[in-house]
Every structure is written in C-alpha cells, then in structure tokens.
Amino acid sequence: MEGITEGINSMAISEPQKKNRIQVSNTKRSIFFYVNLAKRYMQQYNEVELSALGMAISTVVTVAEILKNNGFAVEKKIRTLTVDMRDEPGARPIPKAKIEVVMGKTEKFDELMAAEAEQNGDNEE
Question: Which GO terms describe its molecular function (predicted)?
Fold first, then answer.
C-alpha cells in the first residue's frame, strides 16, 4: 500500500488546474451560469480562462461575447488546439478541438458590477 501512495505522491501532473479556469460544458449548465461565474472569477483574480472541448466551444464563444459586449471584459488571449482523447485505456486516440479564451477586466468592470448589484437589490424588494 505504501508503494502505491508513494507512486501517486511522486506523479508529475503535466498541467495543474488553474484557479481561474472555468471548464465549460454545453450540457450541464446554462450560458448565464457561466457568464455570472466568469464575472465572479474576474472580481477575485482580475482575469478568467474559459476552456472547452468539441461542441462546447460555441458556448465559450457566446459567454466571451456576452462579457465583451456588455463591457465587463476584454479578450487577452485566444488559443485553439487539437487534443487526443481516449474513450478507454488502450483505445485509439480521437482528436478533439479545444479552445482557451483568457478574458480580463475592463476599466469600468467594478462600476458595472456595482450597478448590477444595486439593480438586483432593487428587484428583490
């Protein structure tokens, strides 16, 4: 058992999970869930990375465009690539498209967030 634990502890992870990365799915959540989550991440980290594979790429593009068109964010970096995915261990790799979009806060981000919070507070009363 100790050998297994040591092996796991010594494994090198090629890409550690970034704290400001949102891995987008097109089936699990609505677009506005990701928009609001991205705003919260930008408040905390000043930028957010939206990442998706395959059919979820259009969701990332939509979220990025909503943030950009509403004045909350600007695109800092867009990266497209193809990654090999395997359905089962030992199976042939299947190439999948991947996108990574890094969005940063605009100068008026905090002002827009304050106005949105004020508007939401008025709706609750």
Answer: RNA binding
Q: Where are any strands of DSSP class E within the chain? A: 21-23, 47-53, 73-85, 94-105
Q: Kindly write down the DSSP assignment for every residue of 59-94, as one continuous string.
A: HHHHHHHHHHHTTSEEEEEEEEEEEEE-SSTTSPPE
**Prediction pTM value:** 0.78
Quick: pLDDT tens for 15-55.
Answer: 556 788 999 988 888 999 999 999 999 999 999 999 999 99
Cα separation, 43 vs 9, whole angstroms:
33
